[in-house]
Amino acid sequence: MPEQDGPEKGDEVNRERTEALREQKAAMRLGGGEARLKAQQDRGKLSVWERIEYLFDEGTFVEVGGFVELRSEHFGLGKKKAPGDGVVTGFGRVNGELVYMAAQDFTVLGGSLGEMHGKKVATIMDMAIRNGAPMITLNDSGGARIQEGIGSLCGYGEIFYRNTQASGVIPQISVIMGPCAGGAVYSPGITDFVAMVKGTSNMFITGPDVIKTVTGEEVSKEDLGGPEIHMAKSGVATHIGEDDESTLNWVAKLLSYIPPNNQESVPVVPPVARTTGLPFSLQDFVPSNANKSYDIHAVIDAVVDPHSFLELQEAYASNVVIGFSRIDGISTGIIANNPKHLAGCLDVNASDKAARFVRFCDAFNIPLLTLVDVPGFLPGVDQEYSGIIRHGAKLLYAYSEATVPKLTVVLRKAYGGAYICMCSKHLGADMVVAWPGAEIAVMGPKGAVNVIFRKEIAASDDQEQAAKDKENEYIETFANPRMAASLGYVDDVIEPDQTGHFVRQYLWSLSDKHVERPIRKHGNIPL
Ligand code: HXC
Prior knowledge:
Layout (H helix, E strand, L loop, with lengths): L11 H18 L4 H9 L5 H8 L6 E2 L23 E8 L2 E8 L10 H17 L3 E5 L10 H17 L5 E5 L2 E3 L4 H5 L2 E5 L4 E3 L3 H8 L5 H5 L1 H6 L6 E3 L2 H12 L26 H4 L10 H8 L6 E3 L7 E8 L2 E8 L10 H16 L4 E7 L6 H5 L2 H14 L4 E10 H6 L9 E4 L4 E3 L3 H8 L1 H6 L3 H16 L3 H5 L5 E2 L5 H11 L18
Parallel strand pairs: 3-4, 4-5, 5-7, 6-8, 7-9, 12-13, 13-14, 14-15, 14-16, 15-17
Antiparallel strand pairs: 1-2, 2-3, 10-11, 11-12
Helix pairs in contact: 4-5, 13-15, 17-19
The protein binds hexanoyl-coenzyme A.
Organism: Oceanipulchritudo coccoides
Pfam families: Carboxyl_trans
Protein name: Propionyl-CoA carboxylase beta chain
């Protein structure tokens, strides 16, 4: 029997131990120290702990591996202090849901990734995968820790491997909140979403100095790999935030549309009713003249739950619009041609953008709504040389492969291969409906008449009139949805202003859709 089985009053040793632990943890939270934290602040950046506390629901973040330390001693590293080896890892709640995180601390050895840093990130990723919760990485780092050589390369390799194993299993979001250089960019490159912060973030494989040495080109960091470049030109960025806070707000919002893993069903929130009527009629909004443009965003907003559309890659390949929305509270992926840009046609970049989004939604059980107004694939030598065959094929593949509910509304033009590509019945769409003005044909009237009636028109006395007559005949036959509907490729022709109502009905009817595919290791999507 112990002498005393209740708590011993005033055990000084234990109290001192607890106090020492508190002091140690407080010191660890200072990362690289006050001066470096101040430098971070002066650049308009939050510290790593401020970021964590801002994103996670109050008091819910739990650190994992905080005591892990730098192991290498090369090139003076042994004399350096590196709390947590430059990264904070752990989990907590965002919008009440479990989320895992690795957040690099630039104040510790420039957030550079060494052996133990890499191990910590890999460990937390393993936990996220095992427990089926989203993985978020806050990147703010000088890249591979040069003094650790293979130790840091191994760290990156282990992370890339896990990014790949996690792909399609849990959502992965990278937030670039500082530099992200060299091979470090490939972890974000594999993840599903990449948010960048205006003014403080950049991403590149080789920086301006190396580029100048090798190619002689002179370019600033911002012009090489700033957020605007990755949004408008490379297509790497999904979103640009104004500052750390607004970028993290966006991450929390994004998470609300996606399930925590591929086994869970799509998030459903209580539907928000439209309190006022639409500011315009869809029937009047979309011009009947197929050569006139309009902005598809207005149509999207009119169909989905009010203020629910979260657009992704907004300024990249704007001829196609993608994003999450809610329809009767159900998260739904939207893919829509936008006639305001390049007449809404499909080109290399738009095909890539839409295909990757379709695959994300399919992997995470998010239904797809496709709004079609497409004149075709963008013609041009540049497009052909850039591999429009390969890239357009990705979209065909992605839609054909997808087993989630697939709804398609043909608003106006749907020509040629692009008609097939935009989730037609032939690619397994569950419901395809068309507006009365839909034109489903191999090509537009002018081009078609030029091909099939060229000789006849050339032989006529009044060539202009003959061409017009033939065009009208073609329009009468094809510039309406009747033929497609009579063959069952269009399930219904609906009034434009009833689109929202019908889409809700279809989505509801497909909520238990289940499709089994033949067993295979994986397909071979054209890359
Ligand atoms: C070790 C690094 C580091 C690195 C920065 N530091 N990057 N230490 N390895 N990769 C250290 C600096 O020495 C400095 O330490 C502190 O972090 C802050 O860095 P500064 O240069 O003072 O900050 P700043 O002026 O803001 O410049 C940030 C920077 C710059 C642009 C990121 O540090 C930089 O260019 N770093 C090197 C980037 C790089 O080439 N990385 C390797 C990429 S190759 P002290 O103690 O002096 O304050 C790569 C391969 C990965 O990543 C392959 C994976 C497959």
